[in-house]
Write a structure and sequence with these properties.
Order of helices and strands: HHHHHHHHEHEHEHEHEEEHE
Number of helices: 13
Radius of gyration: 26 Å
Low-confidence stretches: 1-8, 264-268
Shape: elongated
Helix content: 40-55%
Number of strands: 8
Mean pLDDT: 86
Largest sheet: 6 strands, parallel
Distance between the termini: 79 Å
């Protein structure tokens, strides 16, 4: 009679005598299912595995942990690993997103984030400056501010950027979202804000920029190329979205945890 190992060679979870002794009958049923249907496991949830093995999600979880995995996610990763090695391009694309997220979060200062949140709460108006594709991040950011009841103004027009000193006040807050600070209008607008006395927040993918010397708070994020065009490379805006997402959630908890003055429920785009 053939053993289980002989019937299913190269199992993802080898059925050693020690493991067989530790598993209950229900847990063994789960391991059997995983080994037989290995290629399907990455697409199944823990509840779906439980349904197909007539067990419970807790039984599935225990069986996977007894087999040496921290959980279903690690098991799925191990099953997918050989496929990822055969597709280096896909692996590199995912790795770029991972690096952007991790490097950006590691660079952010929580204490500075909290200070910016306090500045937003005190400001009657928040001017969000962005150009090109970054303006879409600015637009989303303004909508979130609107939902929280703040008066947000998106400035992405070149003429208004060059003449922002006519509109902005020392009591307002200026937030600049830019990856490379390649737009001269952004630098000019920041300079005008400083002269007016408006506090300046900058989120940028480069440290050596004019904005670094103008900012009250400077958040350095990490970005990589999405399209490596020889004439004009396009960088990912994911880091800007990560920054604004973190800022909004900190602001949300700070806003809902204490009474706030009535604020106009609208967001404006100045063009």
């Amino acid at each position: 009679m053939s053993t289980y190992d002989e019937r299913i060679p190269n199992m993802i979870i080898p059925m050693s005598p020690a493991l067989l002794e530790e598993l209950s009958s229900s847990e063994k049923c789960v391991i059997d299912f995983i080994n037989v249907h290995e290629t399907k496991i990455p697409t199944l949830s823990i509840n779906e595995i439980a349904e197909q093995t007539y067990t419970s999600s807790s039984t599935v979880s225990r069986a996977i942990q007894k087999a040496g995995f921290s959980g279903i996610a690690q098991l799925k990763f191990k099953i997918s690993e050989p496929q990822q090695r055969n597709t280096p391009l896909a692996h590199e694309i995912l790795a770029k997103c991972y690096r952007e997220s991790v490097e950006t979060i590691q660079h952010l200062s929580v204490s500075d984030i909290r200070k910016v949140v306090q500045a937003i709460q005190k400001s009657p108006r928040i001017f969000v400056f962005a150009k090109g594709l970054s303006s879409y991040c600015g637009m989303e950011f303004c909508h979130y501010l609107e939902i929280l009841g703040y008066h947000a103004i998106l400035v992405d027009d070149s003429v208004l950027l060059l003449n922002i000193k006519q509109r902005i006040q020392p009591t307002d807050l200026a937030i600049f979202l830019t990856l490379q600070n390649t737009s001269s209008e952004i630098a000019i607008a920041a300079s005008q804000c400083q002269k007016v006395g408006t506090p300046i927040v900058v989120c940028c993918g480069k440290k050596d920029t004019v904005l670094y010397d103008l900012a009250d708070w400077y958040f350095l994020v990490y970005t990589e190329k999405v399209i490596d065009d020889s004439y004009y490379p396009f960088f990912s805006r994911l880091p800007l979205s990560i920054f604004t997402r973190i800022l909004i959630e900190f602001l949300y908890h700070a806003t809902t945890s204490q009474p706030q003055p009535n604020r106009p429920k609208h967001s404006l785009s100045v063009r």
